[in-house]
């Protein structure tokens, strides 16, 4: 039986022989960036060392900041013992450059190198990460430190700010544990913001009266995360790199795996505060950092924020979109339980990848994805190479909220529209690595 690992291996063999070799024959132009994938011993706290894989010997990888519409060349070298690949998440680029073997992008063999060439668009907060299969081996794929931020200028006006920070959330030392239905899913020993546990990174220095712009990425392989800055409100100005129609202040923000949120914070409460996960178990596992006002002394303080109901609709236009789709695409998500202690497989319309039915697209038409979650799990759904507009939550219409990942809650239905404006094979999947590896994906193909 063919599974995702077999599919990628066969696709990688085909593409490497047909596409990777000519890449080495390109003119010897100097790259704009170079990423080296290699093992790393990462000390996230004193005496706590994570054996992982990362880019350029650091976590997160280097920030790539680039002008929208300006061509870029990125060389990637694989210093590991397994094939690897880099996905440019949220960018509208050709399939062969997107970094997903299922779309035809080449796997980079051990010791090999590949040159990515594309023109970054659209503007905003994107990111890059491995798109390799992990399966039961929770030291591969997005369980590793292979991720980094990619910001495409010119950014939309977020308002005046005095300091800008990129923050990445990640969980470490994954292992399989029983989930709610007694099937197995990933759990973790440690959590970090960037590469350090709470208390082991230099504090972020601020001054009273400043406005702080935070670009926050959830780079976890599978965990939802809540984040708050004790004593302060966070004003959400963009999601997945796209400005929200209704900027709104909130005590805490929630990010599913692969989501990004841009927030503005007015530094109006002097002290030494913890920016961290709102749930004690994750904050105590390390997910936090310290924000320190000038001329303040003492220990970092945490204050539980008020209970927050996270609802995308609060940031969208309440009126329905005036554009109607040319076609509605029903997508039903279910799990198949294989017994206590086993990993569940996932289906889209009753089939698991690579045996799912490819969805045919015609260039220029508008499609409405009707995402019907028939499981109790929340799923962060990602569409490659396109941006979609969220148009309804459980039959309540909204408009103007543009994303590339949307969390579909358990037993809920979310609809999102996109225009087929980027021809080529296009992957759609759950961004929970375990769910993706065990069937939760399908391909869209232009005809």
Rg from alpha-carbon coordinates: 21 Å
Task: Give me the CATH architecture of the largest domain, please.
Answer: Sandwich
Strand order of the largest sheet: 10-9-12-17-14-15
Number of strands: 30
Number of folding domains? 3
On the 0 to 100 scale, the average pLDDT is: 92
Query: SS-based structural class?
Result: mainly beta
Per CATH, the superfamily of the largest domain is: Cupredoxins -  blue copper proteins
Give the biggest sheet. 6 strands, mixed
- The multimeric state of the shown protein is single chain
Tell me roughly what share of residues is in helical segments.
under 10%
Instruction: List the uncertain runs.
Output: 12-26
What is the fold-level CATH name, i.e. the topology of the largest domain?
A: Immunoglobulin-like
What is the terminal-to-terminal distance? 28 Å
- Structure annotation, total helices: 4
Label the overall shape. globular
What proportion of the residues form beta strands (DSSP E)?
Answer: 35-45%
Q: Please report the first level of CATH classification, the CATH class of the largest domain.
A: Mainly Beta
